[in-house]
User: Fold these one by one.
Assistant:
Number 1:
Amino acid sequence: MFVADLRETTIWPQVRAVVVSGSAAREEEIWDGGKLISDIDMMVITERSSLRLAGAIDAVIARHRAAGIDGGRIPLQALRSYGMLSFYEARHNGVVVAGDSAVLEVVPMEGPNDIPRWEAVRVIGNRILEHVKAAEGQGSWDSAVSKTYEALCEACLVLEGRYRPSFRERLAEIEDKPLGPIVPDLNIFARAAIESRLTDHRPVPKTPGAALQDLLVGFSVSLSKYLDSAGSLDQLINELGHRERHLLHRLYWSSLMLRRWRRPRVRVDPIIDVWSRALASMTARSPDSHVLDDWRICPQILKPARPALR
């Protein structure tokens, strides 16, 4: 068992709590017969944020990955500060299985209006990589299409101040009040994606090409609302690259690329560069052999929960 293994390590005294989050915490995990298809997300919360501690926790998780365990270390300060959807969901649905039972109370997001608009941009930007994965044979097209409409639903609910912390609650929310139609029939396909995850696992009736086009429209809308600006998707991403300047991200990425004997791209923050390359890979048929690996290790831009800005 993961927690028992973690307790036996020398790093256990530095662990504040272990939390089951994500679909497993909400009893929304995906099974195929008796086989678990989705991961069990574990948040190992620590007081400190050292890379060595993170590496040690990752090593323990790796020993249990075959059993479906995934996740990683979360410093307590990050939990207190950043307005991530995963933190919001953990606050409302996470299950503390070891350590401080009150640890999730530090998450400063009580309701959906506390989630920063940036999360709408981030959830859609990252879903573009699901299409890259499918194109490179590392994932299924059915999964990419389903995750497209899940992401569009989540982004719309964030922008509308109606985000709910579980698939069942999101389904109920959009049945009660349909999503803003940023793409044709969005509510129909969002419902199909969520119902597929929760019940029948039938593919969403949409081609991958049409789903990608809808995702890009959603990306444009989210960027436009976040930036309070208008323009084409290329123009909006270019503007985003000018506005978001995170020196530590760029320094870290430059160092990492140089150690891998690759020329670093320092024009924009690394995650924005990854999204741009993923778009080029899918829309211009310009294969990028590094983009998936880069995405998996790339630092993500995170924003404070909105109460911190008041």
Number 2:
Amino acid sequence: MKKTVQLVAIAILVSAIGSNLQAQGLLKKLQDASKPKTKQVEAPKEEKVLTPAEIAAIDSASNFLDSQEILKDSRGLSGIYYATFPIRLTFDLSSVPTTYAKKFLINYDESLQKTKFPTLYINSQYAYEATDREKLVRRATFWLDGYWKNVLEKKGVFATSEADNVDNHKYEYVTHSETTDLQGNSIFGKDWLTNFDGTIYEAEPGIFIIVGEYQNEKDIAKAKKFQILPILYKAEKVAAAAKYTNDVAWDKIAELKAKIDAAGNATTATLPAQTFKDPAIKTETLAFAKAEAAKSHPNEQVQYTYIAGNDWNIIRNKNTGAIIKRTLRIIVVVKIGEQCAFENASISQNYDGAAYGKSIWGGSGAPVYFDCKNLNQYK
């Protein structure tokens, strides 16, 4: 009888424990149900930021330009070319980030243009955009005026410094500047962006060398050290292009310039158009030009200077986009003996974050001879 009572008591205890556990389970479910449900959100995936070299490699692999028209010309200049390093492209709309390219279609049009000069065009794949300005980078343009046609006819050298100084600015690359240390020794200054608004040379069939805007071609030794040159080459010339180190490229420029000088003083060149007037700039650039001539070119008599740049060209830091300085194209008109010539020159003004500083003379280039009847055209 006693044993039976014990068993009954145990059963009652087990039943009570089970009921209590069920109650606790039900209570937990109710508590869980009353809690706000949280949705699990996956961490956003970080998108890889492509380097200029990677962007340019994608451009280089594109077949778009291969389907575009390639003109036929007497020198075989037209065709698909590749750059030895990425070229920075600026879209027509300033709000669109820049991109990089290495593949270009060059067309040399020998037919009569509106300018009546044979014209060379450098096209990236973005030059063919017809409807969306956010995807448009207009082609770079070079043309041969009377002076450069004379050089080509007499010496067989294809070269020209007659460039479109608006759209050629959209094809940029980094080069080095020169400064001095406390002992007056030449050392590297800040890197800066130059562009295709300079001189283009055919180094050999299938290979072009471009000397960027405001790069100085007079002192080849310094140019080799401080100034970078882009090489454009056809695919079949890849081995030959590899031989064009910066030193070799500048030696080639020196060789071609000697031939150009030996072509004689053509009188068919015309003075570049004056774009706007600024009496203060004209006065200070005239002083700069006369000082340079007295020091380095005593055979030149500086007549006057004027502005040929469409506007100030703004130079920005390649990483931050901050303004470093601005530059302006200047023409120096000179007489060399009884002959008349003009020289491309420039001034720059450094920016300190609030204002531009004093003008700095960038030097003048080789003389381009013209008919003296036009000597005082922009005086």
Number 3:
Amino acid sequence: MRLRSFGSAFGIALVVSLMSCSNGTGDGAVTLGPPSASSSVTGEGSVTRWLGVLRTEADVDALDADTAAVIAVVGGSIVVSPVACFDGLPASFEPGAYLLGVVADSRELLDQLLDQVGRPAIFEGQVRTICLD
């Protein structure tokens, strides 16, 4: 019973966080942990970071179980966000989909985090984040 309460609370917190994307469209981004001073600010309202995408889904709720597993490993380096919040992703990613990934300020750190997660990334690269909290 206690685990069910945690799951419900986590789900509610995730939904509330997803509503906070600064572009005002109602789509949200969850990036736990702010970019460090070494992240590149590429213009007002955007930051360049390294991203490893683990999964994409049309329905953000379909990411819940994997989100809980990944956050347990990488903590604040997780991102659950609309694909449209990133510039530099492959064109094959549906713009209306959501992604689950890991973010870092360097390629080396991204590789370390992905090794810790132990799941293959479907994309790794430097992207511009355009939805900020």
Number 4:
Amino acid sequence: MNLIQRIFYNQNVKIPFLVIFLFYFSFFFFRGRIGGDDLQSFNVAFNFLNSDLSFFEFFSIDQENSFVLIHRKIWLLQDFLIIKFLSFFNIFLNFNLIFWSKYFAGFIVTFYTVLSFYLLIIFIKKTKTDYYDFYITFFIVFSIFFGSGLVSFFSGQYIESLAFLLFLIKYKYKNYSKNFFLDIMLINIKPYYLLIILGFEISRRINFEKFYNFKNFFPFIYISILTFIFFLPNLFLGHQFTKLVMGFNINLNLDFILFNLFLFFFSPGQGIIFTWTVLIIIILLGYNEKRTLIKIFFVGIFIIFLCTFSYWNGFSPGNRYLLSILPIFTEEFKNCKNYFKLSKKKPNIKIISLYLLSILTFLNLPTIEYRNTSLHEYEKNSALKFLDKNYVNPDIDDTNIFFLPLDKIDFHNSIFSTKVLINKIIKKENFKIAGRDVNLNAIYPMTSIGRLIYIQKNNLGYLTDDLLKKIEKFSEILIAIYLITLFSIIFSYLFSINYIIKKN
């Protein structure tokens, strides 16, 4: 029994290894800073805690504060709790409260993703010690997380990581009472999750034999209750719904929506036909007739809704808004595992599917470090010029559909990151990618160790001189830890592939 099997099967070592596993890989993948929507939420939470104003005064005086409260309630609450928790310990230890509060506000978002990776394996594997079942489960879950844009969730910058985790836990618990708190959190992350919750509840509760059974209407009653509760704050916060809609900048022009729909599916750089290839294959292999169709129907409506925004892609590889609802297909993931069960039925097709998923996943691995959606930051040398991600630039309009070059095939997250990696290896200082000219040194990595090495190598002032000297002193150790961790991840995936092929 190897280390991975011990973590998942041996009860005597499971908890200690699990804690180490979750925290170590969270520290490894977390980018080490916040600097976008997450920073905006953190600043509001921190300023509120250090303000003498009451809740109503603070969130009514400043328009940005009220915007964050309306759009990012859960993010704001999360940061508030982290700051309060660390403030208590700061009384005794006297550390840099702002620095560590920011760090853990981002770290926890990465932790949600690493925990989701573990839970998805637990939810779809068998309870008994079936090694073949475990390795095929590990193969499928690894392909889902690392073979798609979902890998970007590991960086700790999207609250959709929490949404993904909540949808995953929601799959585990079937009754309304256990789901209620989860769903309240989900709709306060994004109110349009109401649509997905409805579709998910219908897909797992509807009785097709007795279609007009009264119980079939329970999901609609449940959603009505959630909707009512969501809009209750209107009684004391004012016209929340109006502000919410105005904040979304919805465009209901039919030509605009149809064009966006075409891009959503077929744009070479970001269309889900191309960026969701691994996920689509796994879902189709686990297709569950009517119940899968119901989910796809509601996801289709959700996609049409997203296409009323010019910025439908969510500035992550493969659309982070859509990726966050992926756990509603957990049953399909489970069925996909059954497709690869040991049998003499169509062994060649199974092996072909296995190789195809493996190749696509490996091609996407460089996305761990290099992101196509950071192209503007690479192009403008923002890391080298100490520019914040949200810097004002008159040449950039993020409400423009082509704010990012969606029409370029080398903007595809796998192709983009692989191309960057190749140019890093051959040390080509300047090259063109997705129609843009970029400087090799301006392309910064996303993992924490990668960034520390990058900062030290380029002698950047993001850290103090003392820290830079320490990083330089231990740079070889850091590089060794980085490579060992990365190769351990890859080796685990290769081992699972090899085990499955041997058994087949």
